[in-house]
Amino acid sequence: TYVYPLVRNILLPAPKPTEIAVVSTPSEPTEIPATPVAVENPAETPDTFMTPTSAPTSVAMSTPAVVIPKVSFVDINDNFAKDYIIALQRLGIFKDIEGNKFKPYDKITRGQYARWLVTSANILCPEQAITKSMAILSKNYYEDVQPNYSDFTYIQFLHDRGYIVGIDGTHFEPDKELTREELMMMRCSFEYNIQYTDIRNMDPEKSVADLQNYFRDPNDINKSYLVSFYKDMAPGFPVLNRTFGGIKKIYPKAHVTRSEAAASLGEILGQSAEKFIENLLSSTSKPDSTTPDR
Question: Which of 19, 76, 81, 123 is close enough to 259 for a disulfide, judged by CB 3.0 to 4.6 Å?
Fold first, then answer.
């Protein structure tokens, strides 16, 4: 196997409390066994750059000139993330979904989430110059994400930004179902620009102790991902609360649903998808001031 732990003194899981918090999904998430994660080493990134020929660099990678007409999915009416899903769909984020069903309670893979995250951020945060960055990517860092893989561009972009998003030092496992702690690490890495030094300088024991003021199971979070929860704590857990609701138990090893993934992307770096659409529609509906009056 190729799993290498980041630190040796992994905290022992806390005894399972009898009180169970109500989460935002219809039923309690299913826990999966913990997997130690090794941080990829930024120094190992190849110096040679390339432009992948088979990667989908043109898929949803430019700000749309017009908003896609509202096409409501028929299975999201009672879902907590309905407004986020509709807004992101109108921006073209879900081009990979065929038909009129979003399947909000289905699981999402790590590769698919990387694609949704990067395409959403590219539209909502043009100042990040994502399209320009993706035009010149380093050679594939992860052994299991080759340049001909469908989501290579998005995954490699996250790595080139210095974000620690792999399963271990050299693997990403793009087809693996995403867990809550993995989502927080990817999403918060972009939101708070989490780098390797942030993980290295963090005190895991203090982080767990501080998080215990808010949640009952921070001991269950993989130490490699603690930094994402800690960074989200200072502003009041905006990413976590938007994604999973006002929970008291995180269930960090539980799989993420598609609706939770969409909710996590409803606002990025203070830019709301719904507000973006409103502004875009407003600007396109205004009369051209250069047109002379008749």
Answer: 81
Q: How far is CA 151 from CA 115, 117, 226, 230, 259, in A?
A: 6, 11, 26, 28, 20
CA nearest to 284, candidates 64, 122, 72: 64
pLDDT digits (tens, 9 = 90+) for 180-216: 999 999 999 999 999 999 999 999 999 999 999 999 9
Name the one residue in this structure whose structure tokens are 């598609």.
258
25, 144 Cβ separation under 8 angstroms: no
Helix (H, G, I), strand (E, B) or coil at 87: helix
Terminal-residue alpha carbon distance, the chain: 75
In order of 36, 222, 223, the CA distances from 244 in angstroms are 23, 18, 20
The number of C-alpha atoms within 13 Å of 225 and in the hemisphere containing its C-beta is: 26
Q: Are 239 and 187 in contact (CB under 8 A)?
A: yes
Q: What is the pTM of this model?
A: 0.78
Contact 224, 39 (CB under 8 A): yes
Residues 20-79: pLDDT tens digits?
Answer: 333 344 445 655 555 555 556 544 444 333 333 333 443 444 444 456 766 679 999 999
List the alpha helices (DSSP H) in the chain.
82-90, 110-124, 130-135, 152-160, 180-192, 196-200, 204-211, 226-233, 238-244, 258-264, 273-285
